[in-house]
Amino acid sequence: MQNLIPFLLLLGGTMAISLIAGARVKSMFRRWSGVAASSGLTGAQAASQILRQAGIYDVEVVPHEGILSDHYDPVNKRLALSEAVYGSRSVAALGVAAHEAGHALQHAQAYAPLGWRMSAVKVTTFASGAMMFLPIAFSLLGLFKLGMIFMCVGMGIIMLFNLVTLPVEFDASKRAKVLLTRSGIIRSGEEERGVNEVLNAAGLTYVAAFVSSLAYLFYYLMPLLSGREE
Questions:
Q1: Residue 131's domain spans which residues?
Q2: Which of 9, 143, 157, 170 is the most buried (most CB within 10 A)?
Q3: Which CA distances in Å does 152 have to 20, 124, 213?
């Protein structure tokens, strides 16, 4: 029971942080999805224009199913925009589309943190999957300390991945804000403020992920540092 209470508090706290961050980005996106940008461009058109202006012609802009499922695929050089962004002419859509285009620019310019994150995807995916069942096997075998060491290593990998993700995402948002204003796709004032609010809210979700993984790392690390095995 003594070990369960701290874990439940940690679980509840990290879940609350994630839910608050997620609710914030959804709220901002919904709010600015109702405000049409003066340029009249759709998210797909804005992303394509940004890519062309940067001299990037080998990245395909495609629609993608899902809500806020927008992402840049560096392997296939594909910029996938969700239905609410691809054909929308809203301030929110242009902000999200430009953010994803910012990732394509990072890739084209060999932005180091993006390269680090790409290199870490496979090992992070493996660590996440292994942490689902290996600790249970260690516990059944009575190898509690070995299980805790494994959890620390796995969570450390996830934490480092989330840490590297922060500069990647914040840099993409910074690029998006500059490119949208410089190219005249959005106007300064209300439209610029809308893009800032949407992208800043999205950035909080990545901060929440990093803080949560760091908290779990310390949770699994403390018993080892204190000499406790259970």
A1: 4-37+90-226
A2: 157
A3: 26, 13, 11
Query: pTM of the full predicted structure?
Result: 0.88
In a domain, 180, yes or no: yes
Side-chain-side CA neighbours of 15 within 13 Å: the count stands at: 6
**H helices of the chain, where?**
4-33, 43-53, 83-86, 91-108, 112-130, 134-140, 144-182, 190-226
Residue 167 lies in a domain: yes
Place 204 in a pLDDT band, splitting at 50, 70 and 90.
very high
With CA atoms as reference, report the closest residue to 195 among 56, 98, 71, 65: 98
Strands 60-64 and 78-82: parallel
Number of domains in the chain: 1
Rounded to whole angstroms, the Cα distance separating 218 from 213 reads 9
**Catalytic residue numbers?**
100
Comparing CA positions, the residue from 183, 179, 160, 181 lying closest to residue 171 is 179
The larger pLDDT score, comparing residue 223 to residue 123, is at 123
> 132 or 182: which carries more pLDDT confidence?
182
3-state DSSP assignment of residue 52: helix
Tokens describing residue 191: 């439209």
